[in-house]
Specification:
The protein is an all-alpha fold and about 140 residues long. Helix content is about 80%, strand content about 0%. Helix 1 crosses helix 2 and helix 1 packs across helix 4.
Length: about 140
């Protein structure tokens, strides 16, 4: 399930390029990021459950879905998926891609609603991912709210 979430979140964030600029992030902008980050995490949790339901609705477990997905992504790995499983996987992927577009739109709307641009959000998100000090700052803000 976490792999599915990582896949979905990575897809959502990768649709817009990230400009890795070294820039001081103001406390106000960081606070805006934290608010959006919390909202997006809540929405991602809901979407993750919905996506698991989509996969299961097609007749696969999330574990099996991920196994098939990984085999498809690795040309050196043979897939042991049956024709039926491949069909189920393809149907689930189509629905997941649609759900991902919906999630992307929601993320962009929430980010703009809080007064940030996608570039601002992605820049701060990237900095939080790579800077331990920023990670601590985020954790402190999340725990303080």
């Amino acid at each position: 399930m976490k792999k599915l979430f990582a896949l979905v979140f990575a897809i959502a964030l990768s649709s817009t390029s990230v400009f890795a600029q070294e820039q001081k992030i103001s406390d106000k902008k960081f606070d805006m990021f934290v608010e959006v980050f919390q909202t997006i995490q809540q929405e991602n949790n809901k979407a993750q459950m919905e996506m698991a339901g989509i996969i299961e609705g097609e007749g696969l477990t999330t574990e099996r879905f991920n196994e098939i997905y990984q085999a498809e992504q690795n040309p050196q790995q043979d897939s042991d998926a049956s024709a039926e499983e491949k069909k189920q996987h393809a149907a689930a992927m189509t629905k997941l891609e649609a759900k991902n577009k919906e999630l992307q739109g929601m993320m962009e709307a929430k980010i703009k609603e809080k007064g940030l641009t996608m570039e601002d959000y992605q820049q701060i998100y990237q900095k939080v991912q790579t800077d331990p000090e920023m990670q601590q700052k985020l954790m402190a803000r999340l725990q303080g709210q």
